[in-house]
Sequence to fold (119 residues):
Amino acid sequence: MVSVFISWLISALIIWLMSFIPFLNITLSGIVAILLVALVVGLINAFIVPAVKGLFKKANALVLFIVSVIIDALALMLGAWVVGDLLGRDFSIGFWPGAIIVALVLSVFNVGFDRVNKK
Fold:
């Protein structure tokens, strides 16, 4: 349970840090928006990514990583929609390059975090 909370906080920190990179076109209003987007992305990764990984079980690691990055990018965009439109918080991110680059960083972090936690 503690590792899930730490992963969520670090994902929120990554999203916040990436928002300072100007060409990514990420806008946000505050810490609540960041935490909510990290929560939505975490929930999508917990429930949807395992199903997709099951579909690509026979694929090599590179194809699986690319699919995971695309799913993470779509999860970020869904999180921006949920937080921005439904909850009235200011958070937006474009698919290219914003969501793809942030998803790439989050995917690398998640792979590393999973490997550290399994030992």
